[in-house]
Amino acid sequence: MAEVKLHPGWLEPLRAEFDSPYMAALRAFLVAEKQAGKRIFPRANEWFRALDLTPLDQVRVVILGQDPYHGPGQAHGLCFSVRPDVRVPPSLVNIYKEMEADLGIPPARHGFLEHWARQGVLLLNAVLTVQMSMAASHQGRGWEKFTDAVIRLVNARAEPVVFMLWGSHAQKKAAFVDSVERGGRHLVLKAPHPSPLSAHTGFFGSRHFSRANAFLESLGQKPIDWRLPADPGPAAG
Questions:
Q1: Quick one: 140 exposed, middle or buried, by C-beta within 10 A (0-12, 13-18, 19+)?
Q2: What is the set of active-site residues?
C-alpha cells in the first residue's frame, strides 16, 4: 500500500505496520480482488480517510465501527458516516435520536460526519474495506491488526481521550485501553450498539455525547460540536 497517501502524523508511527508481511498479504488480496472485477468500497483514496481527517496528535474522541457500508455510494472512510446525498442508515438514525435526547440537537437530514472528524473525533472501522453487497467480506485479512495498532497509538498518548464503544465488538477491540476506571488516563464509555436490533437495550439513554464533552471540558478542552451543518458540502474525492 505504499501508493496510498497517509497523514504524516500517522505514517511514521505506523511504518512498521505498512512494512509488515501481513500488510503485504492484505495488499495482494485487495489487488487480486480488483483484478477479478469485484467492486470494493470505499474507494482506495478513502481507505485511510479517518486517519487523514483526524491526525494522531488531534484525536480527542474515538468511535469504533466494524465494517464499511457495502452499498454503492455509501462508504467514504468514516465509520457510521455516509456521503451527503445518501439516505441516513438506521444505526445513524438512532445515534441522532440519542444525541437529540442527550443534547437537544435535532437530527441532521444527512449522514455526513466529517464535521466531527475535523474536530478530533476518530471515526475508525475495524476493517477498512468491503466487497459490494457482501458484509464482512474482508474480515480476517489483516485490517483488524492494522486498526489495533492505530488504537494502541491513541492509547499510548499522554493526553486523555474519550473512547465511545458501542456494542460488544468495539468493546472487545479496545479492551486494552488504559481507562480511568482502572486508574488510567482515558474515559471509556460503553453501551450497546445503536443498530435497531439493540439500541433499546441501553444505547438510548447512555448520554455518551454529553459525558464525552464534560470530560473534555474538565481537561480544559473545547467540547465537540456534535451539531452537524445543515449543508455538509460535497464529499472529497
A1: exposed
A2: 67
φ/ψ (deg, to 5) at 121: -95, 110
pLDDT tens per residue, range 173-228: 999 999 999 999 999 999 999 999 999 999 999 999 999 999 999 999 999 999 99
Which contiguous run of DSSP H or E holds residue 97?
helix 90-103
pLDDT in tens, 165-185: 999 999 999 999 999 999 999
Contact at 8 Å (CB) between 198 and 223?
Answer: no
Q: Cell for 184?
A: 488510567
Q: Measured on CA atoms in the order 199, 204, 206, 211, is the torsion positive or negative?
A: positive
Distance CA 24, CA 28 (A): 6
Q: For the whole prediction, is pTM greater than 0.85?
A: yes
HSE-up of residue 24 (Cα within 13 Å, Cβ side): 4
